[in-house]
Task: structure prediction
Amino acid sequence: MEILMAILVGIIFMSATYLMLSKSLLRIIVGTGLLSHGVHLLLLTMGGLKTGAAPLLGQQAEAYSDPLPQALILTAIVISFGVTALFLVLAYRTYQELGTDNMELMRGKEGNE
Amino acid sequence: MNNSLIVLPLLIPFITAIILIFFRKNIPVQRLLSVIGSVLTIVAASFLVATVYTKGIQTTNLGNWEAPFGITLVSDMFSALLVLTTSIIALVCLLYSFHSIEKSREEHYYYPVLFFLILGVNGAFTTGDIFNLFVFFEVMLMASYVLLAIGGTKPQLRETIKYLLVNIISSGLFVIAIAYLYSIVGTLNMAHIGMRLNEMGQSGIVTVIAVLFLIVFGIKGAIFPLYFWLPGAYYVPPAPVMALFGALLTKVGVYAITRTYTLFFTQDVAYTHGLLEVLAILTIIIGAIGAIAYSDVKKIIIYNIIIAIGVILFGISSFTAEALTGSVFYLIHDMIIKAALFLLIGIIIKIAGSSNLKEMGGLINRYPGLAWTYFLAALALAGVPPLSGFIGKVLIIRSGIEAGNYWGSGVVLMSSLFVLFSVMRIFINGFWGEAREYKNEETVPVKRLLVAPVILTICAVLYGVGTEAIYPIISLAAETLSDPEIYINAVLKE
Result:
């Protein structure tokens, strides 16, 4: 199971890298979304995928799944939500101001002489 | 022993930031509250340094959970000193902001965001939990995105996009690194990780993770070849924000490298620290090339940040008590003096109306105070003996030579020359020569703006002159770094 997940995460990282290297700003943002998906899945996988009950004490099971990675992922998810929201708004504002979403055209001339 | 004093340098900026949000339109109240908040932070940080000096490493288990299970805040001498330096720089940048930031920026949550930045930096220095370090990094980065974008001019928007993208990627890598580390050691407490890694001994996967951590913190701290985002991003914000970034943000990356490479990855030193050493030397070279290449004052100081990071990391990579002492000395010196220089060139740019050296000249006649403060700060940066940059570099170079690393030490020594040349070029072109007419000169309140950098320059001079007095404190910090057992025992209390 871990091997399957590792391959999946690898494919996600591959797509994210490809998207982030493209010219269009929106594709880059989609790439960062995929990257954070991959990261969260990896965190879940590396915590171990052995079968066990959901970490609720009411279940009264023999074994539970590891609760710590789930808490870490929850934290990482809200953080990446915040950052992605900021990134989207910033991209919108930049499009309004600069009139382009092409990263190649977002070069600054000042201070580079 | 639980000591609530550790929490205060985090709690005071946090509460100040929250209160400031409610006074958005009332700028006098914002200014008053922010000065009170930052002065209180300095007082708390000074008490913390004094307590750590007399009683040893202070730890606090949040929520009374025993050490490896809850989040532990740890204040050893190294982090206490960095917290104090951060608080002082915050106050000084705040004083400078009062006279230089426009009203439109002040009304859009400039001061609250500034305090969130201080919270993030102080938290990153104080935490004893690797995931909590990630969270504080994000607090700091989020605040820095906003500070970079606030005002919304075209260059700012453009560079914020790039800065944001680079940091999203490096944060992703940070979580990946934590995931790998967690699957090996099964704990997140930094002292506990250090202990478990030492028990495991040398293994290939730990070395891989060590390099991954170096990449993550290298992006944050701008080492070669991961410095590419820094010159653009630091070029666009206004002077006080630039000073905060230049003094604090990259140094948090340096702190994190120092912490992980002295506490976690001490098994395969030949490889990991060897790699760090090579990268540090290349960082110095790339910084020196940039510093002498540009005739733009901002770019010159920005590349000087990169040189300093290289010098500090070269000391860390030597991994002897003496070199570590030198690095701690140099780190604190560099935070103070970089903030001072950014604030000074902020004034120069305001007067000249341009950051290009070719459009300046003859400032010394009308602004002797500015000129001599800049001259002192420049000499301190280069490490001229009575001033602050001297002792750190001497210790780093001496231990490098003792270890037989003549090339590395030679590069560090040569870098001082390039640093001196680059900052003196600003002095010679900007302050000497023929006086010019500047358009907006009368509107700049030079005297009031000068207060902040003068305070920092005085700190730098005292830091240099009083080396003998400060030495025991700094060597205490280096002692914890060179012997991770002290840190681990203080946290886990066997």
DSSP finds three helices and no strands in chain A.
